[in-house]
Write a structure and sequence with these properties.
Low-confidence stretches: none
Oligomer: single chain
Helix content: 40-55%
Mean pLDDT: 80
Largest sheet: 2 strands, antiparallel
Shape: elongated
Structural class: mainly alpha
Strand order of the largest sheet: 1-2
Length: about 140
């Protein structure tokens, strides 16, 4: 008599793959119907009135991520097991992601006005005035 739980890992694996493929199809359909817009994927915002410009940090992060993920997938399929990703590749991905985050932070701080200071303006700096005591009516 066979074990009834023998096929459970296969059933769970097929269900997980089915869910992931279903989500991928929904995202792909939304991209095709323009519900998810990819117009500004590698563009960074600029001040009003100026058209968007391409961001090298976003492009680098996008390309590095797809190249590493594609190679990892290809090598894993060829070997039949998950392969180890070298630390140098992970370091390059980290540097690429860090450059994107740094560029995003610089762009966010570029549009902010400078913080107010507690000092009065330079032209109003004079000697302190003496306070006069209020006079009492007679």
């Amino acid at each position: 008599m066979s074990n009834p739980w023998y096929n459970l890992p296969v059933i769970i694996g097929v269900a997980v793959v089915g869910i992931i493929v279903g989500m991928a199809l929904v995202v792909f359909w939304k991209i095709l119907t323009n519900t998810i817009k990819l117009d500004g994927l590698i563009e960074e915002p600029t001040p009003l009135g100026i058209p968007y410009k391409a961001s090298l940090a976003r492009f680098q992060f996008l390309i590095f991520t797809f190249v590493v993920a594609g190679l990892f997938l290809l090598l894993s399929i060829e070997s039949g097991t998950f392969v180890d990703i070298p630390e140098s590749v992970l370091g390059l991905l980290g540097i690429s992601g860090g450059s994107y985050v740094l560029a995003k932070g610089i762009a966010a701080n570029k549009d902010k006005p400078p913080p107010p200071t507690d000092d009065p303006p330079a032209d109003s700096r004079t000697a302190p005035r003496e306070r006069s005591q209020p006079t009492r009516g007679a």
